[in-house]
Amino acid sequence: MGYRDVYAAWKADPEQFWMEAAEAIDWERMPSKALSDENAPFFEWFADGMVNTCWNAVDRHVEAGRGAQTAIIHDSPVTGTIHKISYAELRDRVASLAGALRARGIDKGDRVIIYMPMVPEAVEAMLACARIGAIHSVVFGGFAAHELAVRIDDAKPKAIIAASCGIEPGRVVHYKPLLDGAIEQAAHKVDFCVIFQREQEVAKLIEGRDVDWFAFQYGVEPADCLPVEGNHPAYILYTSGTTGQPKGVVRHTGGHLVALNWSMKNIYGVDPGEVFWAASDVGWVVGHSYICYGPLIHGNTTIVFEGKPVGTPDAGTFWRVIQDHKVRAFFTAPTAFRAIKREDPKGEFLKNYDISSLRTLFLAGERADPDTVLWAQDMLKVPVIDHWWQTETGWPMVGNPMGIEPLPVKVGSPTVPMPGYDIHILDEAGQPMEAGQLGAIAVKLPLPPGTLPTLWNAEGRFRKAYLDHFPGYYETGDAGYIDEEGYLYIMARTDDVINVAGHRLSTGGMEEILASHPDVAECAVIGVTDQLKGQLPLGFLCTNTGTNRSDEDIVSECVKLVRDRIGPVAAFKHAIVVKRLPKTRSGKILRATMVKIADSADFKVPATIDDPAIIDEIREALRTIGYAS
Ligand code: COA
Ligand code: AMP
């Protein structure tokens, strides 16, 4: 069957489509049906099945005689080490860790926060939670103590599993002080912390609270896999919304297993036993779905890569990893390729490596600009496949189904909707738009298995953020259009979320922090275009009248404040002091207009602007820092 037949088969009978896909999963009790719609618009999948994620990702492959196959390759150019773990070893390591967690009182439904760099122990910690029905929440290592504290207070974990340090090029990231700081800031108190001590930095443990990763596993009984209900939360993953309070995306167990397993062959075109590499981080959804769960559930070998596309040690690192581990399918963000292209535009490093194992490059996380796609095609000589999805959906909404039927690539489009997703372009009033017309991208409910059923402890916010605007649809927050042949084009966000080097960040969250500076009366943060990272945040500060502080001091304090509160990942390095902000007569800050001015793009001054003269003031201020040329 080709793509159109498969999509039509799903549309004609979604229940049968997903029940068939569910057969590829080992259930302790097969679900009696796929969709539960009694509480629409809250939908659940495979709710009455009983299943364990860790069993499906690890043990079943060992039982099937594939215990000797490599499950995880840790390739770490920043420490100069490569370490392989077989499925059999992985089972034993995870069972031991899970047993130790259980012995310390972690039960089904308890939350465990994981704050770790790109080491296999991070994946093992996720799997150990899944093994005993605990709900993990992984926090990206580039977030600062405050962000970790916010997540501790929301998820209310019983335990935190952390590493002593991470390694960024040129510096050691001291996790322990960040962890201690977060625990101190948080109102919720955890029972204990498990610290994985790395060679590069051994952290001081706090007696009575911290336990050593190895020591606390000593003598414990390994844990078996505990079957849980299909609608039991597998994890919570926080993502940026319009405010500083992140949204806790919930993932249910059954749908997660079925959808990820289905996507590995049908979308990514890989067979069990092949090597799949997603160069992302376990702290992001790509890391959850395609470093940890997807490849392991499907019986692939996954790579945990601790390095950067450039500088670790050079722009040939990716090619070396592909060659050394015979990578079949490779997934990264366009920004990584822009970084390589900038250092090695002619692809000189490629000549040193044999990358003939590679079948396909997948790009996602941000817009894949045509220059980057064409350059990657030219260099790698394999299909370069853009695909579009979000933390909320957990797997691709729109892509090119390489395992069903590779469709012609249209550069600039992530291609077509995947089965499960009925995608529409809507106008402000929620009416469908014609082909080629730009509008809000919405997905007809129900969303398929593996997507978010709700937000953690925030059902009202879930409704408000995603369901209320277009009744009967899920609002993606992206805008775009569909062409005559059904190809989707993503053009912009409809909210204040920006995308910096494939990382999703909230300008609203940054504004809340800037506003807390004692000399800042008012502020705005926008995302300006950046050649490397796609977008970069830029702050506008109106200072309090009468302040005797210099603009330079206030700006540098604000930059430091955002780094300290959100973390280095915010990449907030530029801000300017202005006398006032452009606003409508009703007081709404004209952020979209400010972006256009900064990017030197064409724009019309909005008719509702309070004082048109301010446009020139903003342009002049931006010119002083190299924008609005
Ligand atoms: N722990 C601690 N700090 C981290 C971190 C982590 N896990 N990841 C990034 N940071 C820090 C970086 O060191 C940097 O700090 P600095 O301001 O002191 O230099 C800052 O956060 C910004 O990081 P980043 O945006 O990654 O920029 P970079 O300049 O270090 O690297 C690229 C640029 C393009 C090489 C890099 O962004 C990249 O590899 N991107 C791939 C995108 C990706 O994987 N996205 C995931 C979604 S698919
Ligand atoms: P995240 O939840 O961090 O994965 O970010 C999801 C957002 O990143 C989407 O809503 C889009 O705005 C953007 N995004 C992800 N993939 C793509 C893509 N292929 N093309 C354009 N934008 C993308």
From TrEMBL:
InterPro entries with a match to the protein in the record: ACAS_N (IPR032387), AMP-bd_C (IPR025110), AMP-bd_C_sf (IPR045851), AMP-binding_CS (IPR020845), AMP-dep_synth/lig_dom (IPR000873), ANL_N_sf (IPR042099)
Entry coiled-coil feature ranges: none
Cited PROSITE patterns: AMP_BINDING (PS00455)
Annotated ranges, domain Acetyl-coenzyme A synthetase N-terminal: 3-57
A Pfam entry, by short name: AMP-binding_C
Ranges of residues in domain AMP-binding enzyme C-terminal: 510-588
Organism superkingdom: Bacteria
Domain AMP-dependent synthetase/ligase as annotated: residue spans: 68-444
CDD domains: PrpE
GO CC terms in record: intracellular organelle lumen
Gene Ontology molecular functions: propionate-CoA ligase activity
Family assignment from sequence similarity: Belongs to the ATP-dependent AMP-binding enzyme family.
Name listed for the protein in its UniProt record: Propionyl-CoA synthetase
Classification of source organism: Bacteria, Pseudomonadati, Pseudomonadota, Alphaproteobacteria, Rhodobacterales
